[in-house]
Design brief:
- There is one protein chain.
- By secondary structure, the chain is an alpha/beta fold.
- The chain has a single domain, classed as 3-Layer(aba) Sandwich (Rossmann fold), CATH 3.40.50.
- Helices cover 35% and strands 14% of the residues.
- The chain has an 8-stranded mixed β-sheet, sandwiched between helices. A two-stranded antiparallel ribbon has the order 5-6.
- The chain is globular, with a radius of gyration of 19 Å.
- The chain starts with 30 loop residues before the first helix and ends in a 6-residue tail after the last helix.
- It comes from Archaeoglobus veneficus (strain DSM 11195 / SNP6).
- Its EC number is 1.2.7.1.
- Heterotetramer of one alpha, one beta, one delta and one gamma chain.
- GO terms for molecular function: pyruvate synthase activity; thiamine pyrophosphate binding.
- Keywords: Oxidoreductase, Pyruvate.
């Protein structure tokens, strides 16, 4: 287990200061803003945030208002990593130790902005990149992204008589990022705040690029009650459809074990984006395919091994 200086043992032990102010316009139950709150508690005030276009930018940075209590700059979908690279070099040239962090959605990271991200990683910039993965383009109408899971209904992968929803598997972005051989890659969930806090702290201590992909449930795009965000996020982990782990210096480590796995139906049935799978025999076959994805994850990361 990686030991982190200043790590708290409970959520209550995190810094009380809120660097993302209340009063923003995010949806009730937004997993994304929960993740950002926790991340900023770990990063602290001595930081500059670079924010790609997306839900976060719209809800926390409407014109002439800002919920950010640290310097924050908004870029386009495609250039957040490029702008962060420039800021990092400027900060270094000025002799300051200010941390540079990117917050971007899965569309801005895994699809549109991946070229800039890859360049930032390859050049070795000392930047923390946090991908807020809500598995679609939620800000512009719930369109499919490269991070959308198999068989999910979106407005551009609608389920119906000739379609089971998104026909492609979720892109394994953390693994692709790890192939750049950077010092630190991690996956996390907003439903496990202590784990997320520790990983952001760990990223702050890295000399070079660090990438954290955070699974952030979205009640609007996924279609569940706003009070169930933490429960839905935990079920993703408990079914092995999302795995929390770290890659430190090219070695997979600190995989979050889950004990006895739950069947994927428990996760799918809570969300309207998978509701069509329970309406027909063909849908049932697709659930079996999704269970096979979870089983693969369990084998790959040894999730069924004794705790």
């Amino acid at each position: 287990m990686v030991q982190v200086k200043g790590l708290t043992n409970s959520v209550a032990g995190m810094p009380a200061e809120e660097l993302l102010a209340p009063g923003h316009t995010a949806c009730p139950g937004c997993g994304q803003t929960l993740a950002v709150r926790i991340a900023l508690k770990a990063i602290g005030r001595n930081a500059i945030a670079c924010m790609a276009t997306g839900c976060l930018e719209v809800s926390t940075g409407l014109y002439n208002r800002s919920a950010w209590r640290i310097p924050c700059i908004h870029m386009l979908f495609e250039n957040a990593a490029a702008v962060a690279s420039g800021i990092e070099r400027a900060v270094k040239r000025m002799g300051k130790d200010t941390k540079v962090v990117v917050f971007a959605g899965d569309g801005g990271t895994i699809d549109i902005g991946f070229g800039a991200l890859s360049g930032m990683l390859e050049r070795g910039h000392n930047v923390i990149y946090i991908c807020l993965d809500n598995e679609a383009y939620m800000n512009t109408g719930v369109q499919r992204s490269g991070a959308t899971p198999y068989a999910a209904h979106t407005t551009t992968s609608p389920s119906g008589e000739v379609s089971i929803g998104n026909p492609r598997p979720k892109k394994d972005a953390p693994w692709i990022v790890a192939a750049h051989h950077i010092p630190y890659v991690a996956t996390a969930s907003s439903s496990y705040p202590k784990d997320l806090f520790r990983k952001v702290k760990r990223a702050c201590e890295v000399d070079g690029p660090a990438y954290i992909q955070v699974h952030v449930p979205c009640p609007t795009g996924w279609g569940y009650d706003t009070s169930k965000t933490v429960e839905v996020g935990r079920l993703a982990v408990e079914t092995a459809l999302w795995v929390n782990y770290e890659v430190v210096d090219d070695e997979v480590t600190n995989v979050m074990k889950i004990g006895k796995r739950k069947p994927v139906e428990e996760y799918l049935k809570m969300q309207k984006r998978f509701r069509h799978l329970f309406a027909s025999e063909e849908g049932r076959k697709e659930i079996e395919r999704i269970q096979a994805i979870a089983d693969y994850n369990a084998r790959k990361f040894g999730l069924d091994e004794m705790l």
